[in-house]
Amino acid sequence: MTKSALEIARAAYQPKLPKAFRGSVKVSEGEPTQSVANQDEIKRIFPNTYGMPIVQFVESNTQINYPAVNVGVILSGGQAPGGHNVISGLFDGLKNLNPDSKLYGFILGPGGLVDHNYMELTTEIIYEYRNTGGFDIIGSGRTKLESEAQFEKGLEIIRELNIKALVIIGGDDSNTNACVLAEYYAAKKANVQVIGCPKTIDGDLKNDQIETSFGFDTACKVYSEVIGNIQRDCNSARKYWHFIKLMGRSASHIALECALQVQPNICIVSEEVEAKNMSLDDVVTYIAKAVAARAAQGHNFGTVLIPEGLIEFIPAMKKLISELNDFLASNAEEFSHIKKSHQRDYIVSKLSKENAEIYASLPEGVARQLTLDRDPHGNVQVSLIETEKLLAEMVGNKLAEWKEQGKYVGKFATQVHFFGYEGRCAAPSNYDADYCYSLGYAASALVINGKTGYMASIRNTTAPAEKWIAGGVPITMMMNMEKRNGEMKPVIQKALVKLDGKPFRTFASKRDDWAINTDYVYPGPIQYFGPTEVCDQPTKTLQLEQSK
Ligand code: FBP
User: Fold this and answer.
1) Fold (topology level) of 34-50+64-215+428-484
2) What is the pLDDT of residues 63-115, one digit of tens each?
3) Which among 172, 173, 202, 432 is annotated as catalytic?
4) Is 245 in the pocket of ligand 1 (CB under 6 A)?
5) Band of the pLDDT at 328, cuts 50, 70, 90?
6) Which of 106, 201, 350, 416 could form an SS bridge with 112, CB 3.0 to 4.6 Å?
7) Which ligand 1 atom is nearest residue 248's CA?
8) pTM, whole model, 2 decimals?
9) Res. 274 pLDDT band, cuts 50 70 90
């Protein structure tokens, strides 16, 4: 494998660990826990893994001789920077306790467990991937582990390889499934532990115990670097408005964090749009007003950040999408025979008056996307909707109307961007490199101490690493009941942007100034070597959340 100069230098980086992991550790257990909501139902569904205490690893003087163990690891869902370091931390943690322990990686996600597709991860293999981005060491996948048949298939290979524990590195859904699997094996007395690790660039897997999901830090820094570069270009040429969509599926954490880092003219926060019951036209008018106000000062340029999930948070669009889903699900055959050029009119004629009006007002391309791209469950794939183009076009139309009415004088030329995949496999920042390595180490300690149904946790991460607190949180503690595919299911509660939280309030207190002025910040690329204030800063979101 040919390596870049940075990769070679980075391979030698030794991630920082919490103090507890620098010698022998012991487990300190807290009080029994409760789930965040629906306690009775969650307890009933998880009789063997409900109510367990939060555990913390603390330094100890007692040297224990641990037996060798075999462990399986799975990378689940979208890539996030630092996954390789979770695996290296897990590997080093296990080997440190007993050099005869073995780590098996299941290939291409949870499907690897079901299909018995695996490889042993050796010292040489791990060495190649230390501190690198990506999930390519074993690959990732989105197969959901949820049926008994899958659990049983998994058990066959677990038995064959004499695996004591599985570590599942994933987002909220994958960790929910990890918990279901832990419960299933516990109920069966199969003697197989299941441990989760909090991963997702989206930043929506966090709660009182889990400060952040790994990858969020690096991905936001990469996007902020590029947005900063665009802002400098924008401020140099002074002729474009840049509409920038940012990944993050539902929650707007990424867009908000980038806004805090780069101070754009506008950032839309989906959670606020929903709370204020804004229509698409309200969002368009809000942007157009800011454009017009800058134009009045002779500034015909700017930046607009748009969260990926925006469309689904606009209440009226949500209703439209829901009616379209239902209509197309039951009339797919008839619709497939309608000529492309007549499809729009056909849909307009079939929808309720309110939804027909909204549908008719959408630009051609978006209207088509809403009727075409559906996932296997029959839902519109909102992430494929080019919201950045939609808004740029609709703002342009609004400004043209205002121009005719003499309400706006200016020029409006746009560029559109979508940043997502560019950041998901970036080389992890020092924060993510250290955080992930520590999470892997914590997972190894949970395994060795016989825990199951726990998520590895590292807290106090805005402090220097030696003060970080390592432990594990029962996954049932993060659960509530939610409707999925028409059925109530136990799931980990997703963390959306809190409008009364400090990150949003800070943004809201500054956005009017950012809209009218040109207060751009240019964060530059992630730095791996150099002064700590340049290399080791956590996200603004985390710093604000942790500040008193
Ligand atoms: P996870 O929730 O699995 O971590 O994935 C996050 C994400 O990157 C979202 O931000 C994005 O909407 C989605 O994955 C894209 O999925 P895909 O990788 O299948 O294109």
Assistant:
1) Rossmann fold (3.40.50)
2) 888 999 999 999 999 999 999 999 999 999 999 999 999 999 999 999 999 99
3) 202
4) no
5) confident
6) 106
7) 10
8) 0.95
9) very high
The Å distance, Cα 77 to ligand 1 centre, comes to: 7
Q: How far is the CA of 270 from the centre of ligand 1 (A)?
A: 17
- Kindly give the number of the ligand 1 atom that is closest to the alpha carbon of 424: 8
Both structure tokens of 132: 């690198």
State pLDDT tens for residues 403-421: 999 999 999 999 999 999 9
CA–centroid distance, 68 to ligand 1, in Å, is 36
Note if 202 is an active site residue.
Answer: yes
Ligand 1 pocket member 308 (CB < 6 A) = yes
- Closest residue by Cα to atom 8, ligand 1, is 78
CATH fit for domain 219-423+500-546, picks 3.40.50.1110, 3.40.350.10, 3.40.80.10, 3.40.50.460:
3.40.50.460
DSSP helix/strand/coil, 458: strand
Spell out the residues 6+ positions from residue 259 whose beta carbon is closer than 8 angstroms to its own. 267, 305, 507, 511
Q: How far apart are CA 286 and CA 511, in angstroms?
A: 12
The pLDDT of residue 528 is above 90 = yes
Ligand 1 center–CA 249 separation, angstroms: 7
Give the pLDDT of residue 332.
Answer: 84
Q: How confident is the model at residue 377 (pLDDT cuts 50, 70, 90)?
A: low
What pLDDT does 376 receive?
59
Nearest CA to ligand 1 atom 4: 200
Residues 6+ apart with CB under 8 A from 243: 304, 306, 388, 389, 391, 392, 414, 415, 416, 417
Domain ranges of the chain: 34-50+64-215+428-484, 219-423+500-546
The strand ranges marked E within 35-101 are 55-60, 70-75
Pocket lining: 78 vs ligand 1, CB cutoff 6 Å: yes
Q: Are 497 and 256 in contact (CB under 8 A)?
A: yes
- pLDDT of 361 reads 86
Strands (E), 420-516: 454-459, 469-474, 479-484, 487-492
Q: Is the pLDDT at 329 greater than 70, yes or no?
A: yes
Fold match, 34-50+64-215+428-484 / 219-423+500-546 = yes
